[in-house]
Specification:
Oligomer: single chain
Distance between the termini: 18 Å
CATH topology of the largest domain: Ribosomal Protein L4, Chain: A
Number of domains: 2
CATH architecture of the largest domain: 3-Layer(aba) Sandwich
Number of strands: 6
Radius of gyration: 27 Å
Largest sheet: 6 strands, mixed
Strand order of the largest sheet: 2-1-3-6-4-5
Structural class: alpha/beta
CATH superfamily of the largest domain: Ribosomal protein L4/L1
Strand content: 5-15%
Number of helices: 7
């Protein structure tokens, strides 16, 4: 399959030949679903933690005698019904990580890339050498490839351009990543994917 290659002015400059074997991969939707779930779950820190009545300090002495005071009987000031006491059924710091083996993760990444290419959601760029110093100028470059309705954009480069990153980091609908770090979630969630020629070659090498 041949993909059109564009410059930053959205003008066709050539073509890029892709192996059909990469695009014609058949995997079950369950595989992509499992990889996405594993990614999202593993992003969750799971650090919320409350103390039970056995972990709160104090409360060793009975607040008052059992009978004769006219008040309800209590055995500890650390009971959950007391202010400052333990928490019943509160969140506990517990992290369950989902593991997906490398082969399945690779297949899911290849499948989602193939789907996005077939959906015409991927724009292949010759390079992304732009000389901009202002965020609004950088946004104008991206608007040549997108529209207001579908503007969540993923820019995939061979390596991070830190000068460009400083300019576009305030644009909430743009994310910059590299071919070595891009994952299934990135390819799935963004409306438009801009990838340079060098980056896609490096990305395709991950499937071998």
């Amino acid at each position: 399959m041949k993909l059109n290659v564009y410059d930053i002015e959205n003008t066709k400059t050539g073509e890029f030949e892709m192996d059909d074997k990469i695009l014609n991969i058949n995997v079950k939707d369950d595989l992509i679903h499992n990889v996405l779930l594993a990614y999202l779950n593993n992003q969750h820190i799971g650090s919320a933690h409350t103390k039970t009545r056995g972990e709160v300090s104090g409360g060793g002495k009975k607040p008052w005698r059992q009978k004769g005071t006219g008040r309800a009987r209590h055995g500890s000031i650390r009971s959950p019904i007391w202010k400052g006491g333990g928490v019943t059924f509160g969140p506990r710091a517990h992290k369950v990580r989902f593991k997906v083996n490398k082969t399945e993760s690779k297949k899911a990444l290849q499948a989602i890339l193939s789907k996005r290419i077939k959906d015409n959601s991927v724009v292949l760029l010759k390079d992304f050498n732009v000389d901009v110093n202002k965020t609004k100028d950088a946004a104008k470059v991206f608007y040549k490839f997108i529209n207001d309705k579908n503007k969540k954009t993923l820019l995939i480069l061979e390596k991070i351009d830190f000068s460009l990153h400083k300019v576009i980091k305030n644009i909430k609908w743009i994310k910059m990543t590299t071919a070595a770090e891009v994952n299934v979630y990135d390819l799935f969630i963004y409306d438009k994917i801009l990838i340079t020629k060098n980056a896609i070659e490096k990305l395709l090498a991950r499937f071998n």
